[in-house]
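Subject: Sanity check before I submit

Could someone independently write out the structure tokens for this chain? I want to compare against mine line by line before I put it in a report. The sequence has 205 residues.
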Amino acid sequence: MLPLVIPRHINSLRHISAVGIVFVIYFVVMIIIHSGMHGLSENAKNLHVTGRTTDEGIHLFGTGNRALDGLGVFMFAFLCQVNSFEVYWDMSDRSASRFTLCSAIAMLLCLIVYGSTAVFGYLDFGNRATVSAPLLYNPVKEPEVMVAYIGLLVKLCASFPLISMATRNSLYHSVGWDPDKLPFWKRCIVIVNAPLLHCSSRPVV
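---
Independent answer below. Compare away.
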């Protein structure tokens, strides 16, 4: 992941990000197909409006504190405003209306991806779907899942620099450095030493 943080502009990650998005869409399609071939037909017959977490079947609505478990997940999933300024300034033909349109399309894609994953993953595994979706599959026995695992790894390698660049640029501005004029060697020193400084500042338990 480290080499991907070094480039000066966020648009340098557009190619690997596009590859990662393709793999994410592949993973969602795989979830839908896997659900149709395994648990969907059986779990669809056992639908309930509400129910306790220990009850069998599919519950359309959660109750109690458990109903709020997914709130943090959705809040984090749509937390993309951190990179808004970097993305805007790297647009080739930037304007507020064009940026709004691109953001709306991206959020719609996220909604489709997250919604499809949640619905079909739940219909496939039922009450077992309480952990991260990739953990519900066996990549050793299912080669298509292994491909999805590799794709998600690529997506993580693209996502980490997106967040790191926003953090890095904010640090540059806090000490009066211009990110566009900073020499390459100085960027490398900052990027390599920032994680070491963060780790060394954490208390040892």
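---
OP: Matches mine. For the report I'm noting this point. The chain has one domain: 2-176.
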